[in-house]
UniProtKB/TrEMBL annotation:
Entry-linked InterPro entries: Bact_response_regulator, CheY-like_superfamily, Sig_transdc_resp-reg_receiver
Protein name, UniProt field: Two-component system response regulator
Residues annotated with 4-aspartylphosphate modification: 55
Chain ranges of the Response regulatory domain: 6-123
SMART domains (alphabetical): REC
Keywords: Phosphoprotein
Length: 229
């Protein structure tokens, strides 16, 4: 079963949270409420989120301050933040939102379809990143536990060849999905989403290079993993 992504909704008004849940329920992901900046930061201590929808105007810690705290934490600094605001003070106010680390800035009332589409993009990117991490973890596990020492040093090790082939096929599936998503985002013209997709593609390229280096006859990358300690 594919694990659902978590989306953090931050707003001090219950009716706004209810409206967001109604709009995003069609995505069939896990929606987590936070009624203040402090409550949002507490939720971020224990859970991983695909995207954060953050209200700007909140009593106490407002959206800008909350975003600053999120971006200072290593664990949460890369989570996309979409600012939601009922006011518009012009370009300076919007610039402040982007300077605080937001990937998008949407004024209320907003088009429900547009908001749902934007959130969906970041959920898709999050899922691809999760797949990438799983493949990398599997690669490390197979190298540590599944391969005999010295496999690949003289072209031997059928087991190692089979494992590498399986990992390569799995990675290829993720690469194909990421490429299709990248084309879709390029056509949409959403600069923030395109940049995030490019970051994902760079990670995939790095993992592909590491996997290719383990192929028999490429210089003994497997020996380095097992015999270099």
């Amino acid at each position: 079963m594919v694990q659902k992504a978590k989306i953090l909704l931050v707003d001090d008004r219950p009716e706004n949270l209810l409206a967001l849940e109604a709009i995003l329920s069609a995505l069939d992901q896990t929606l987590v409420r936070a009624s203040s900046g402090e409550e949002a930061l507490k939720a971020l201590l224990t859970d991983d989120f695909a995207v954060i929808l953050l209200d700007v105007q909140m009593p106490g810690m407002d959206g800008f301050e909350t975003a600053a705290h999120i971006k200072r934490r290593e664990r949460t600094r890369d989570i996309p933040i979409i600012f939601l605001t009922a006011i518009n003070h012009g370009p300076h106010h919007t610039f402040r939102g982007y300077a605080a680390g937001a990937v998008d800035y949407i004024s209320k009332p907003f088009d429900p379809w547009v908001l749902r589409a934007k959130v969906s993009v970041f959920v898709d990117l999050y899922m691809k990143n999760c797949q990438l991490r799983e493949q990398a973890a599997l690669l490390r596990l197979q190298l540590e536990q599944g391969l005999p020492d010295g496999a690949g040093s003289n072209g031997g090790g059928k087991e190692s060849v089979g494992i590498i082939a399986e990992l390569s096929a799995r990675l290829a599936a993720v690469e194909e999905q990421a490429e299709a998503l990248g084309k879709q985002l390029n056509e949409s013209g959403d600069g923030a989403a395109v940049a995030t997709a490019a970051h994902l593609e760079r990670k995939l390229t790095g993992l592909r290079r590491a996997l290719d280096a383990l192929e028999p006859g490429t210089g003994g990358g497997i020996i380095k993993q097992h015999g270099g300690d």
